[in-house]
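Posted in: Structural Biology > Protein-Ligand Complexes

Title: Requesting predicted complex, adenosine-5'-diphosphate in pocket

I'd be grateful if someone could produce the 3D structure tokens for the following input. Sequence and ligand are given below.
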Amino acid sequence: MQLEIRGLSKTYGNGVKALDNVSLTIPTGMFGLLGPNGAGKSTLMRILATLQEADAGTAMLGTIDVLKQKDEVRKVLGYLPQEFGVYPRVSAFEMLDHIALLKGVTQRGERKALVEALLQRVNLWEQRKRRLSGFSGGMKQRFGIAQSLIGEPKLIIVDEPTAGLDPGERNRFYNLLTEIGENVVVILSTHIVQDVQELCSNMAIINKGKLLYAGPPDSALRDMREGWEKTIAKAELDAYVNSGKLISNKLVAGKPIIHLLNDGSPGEGFVTAEPSLEDVFFGFIHASNQAPVNA
Ligand code: ADP
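-- Reply #1 --
Done. Output follows.
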């Protein structure tokens, strides 16, 4: 089973082209969809989750036509949206029980066993009687995974799952995601490079609705040009930003450390740096932001 997306496009009423002829083959396992805010990730996720219509293109999950056979998709879909919106004042147990009922687990004993197993699996057993409205960000995300796993989904879509989680919660969430079967297509949409680095065997980078890269993170790293690094004074930063060559910069102990990609040393004081996935990401985004519109 794999997900085949061909020529998917979506333009909103205000003229924003959120997806521009995107084609992607997504195998089973963890797939990272990486892009900055506004890249079109949520639009793609919502279309695949049957919550929104595309203007053009196709998406096939095995033999299911995702854009047309919405009921079939929903039977095998687990969707964890960015925000659930309102968290009701009911307990985690009651809510999971209710969702399981909606998903067709009508036999009471079977449902109880399923909900109990899910609560154990996402490590919310101790909190099963607590109201969802009082859950922390990490607990809400783990609850989200539990509800998305009801019905043994074949396609799991997780939209920006780690935004707003503290490092401990993020780790617990990563561990949980990696336990989800290898036989399921899991799409993880994120603007956080670390999410993809730690979890995903395949990835795509999108920006402004366009696909910029698709493949394993390792191959993207191998294809990179040489990376160069230099610690500079803050006052020098603007000149590098304006040069258009800067890939990334971060502050370490109050001083900017900049990264450039260049064949050969870009100048005095630069040392070679192993390119990171972050460099790959910023390199692609940077190049696409420089490209003329409609190119
Ligand atoms: P991401 O999830 O990568 O942040 P989105 O898919 O949310 O990106 O948005 C892609 C682009 O489409 C952005 O420019 C955004 O402002 C625009 N957009 C998203 N939803 C709507 C909408 N309902 N109406 C109009 N424009 C939208």
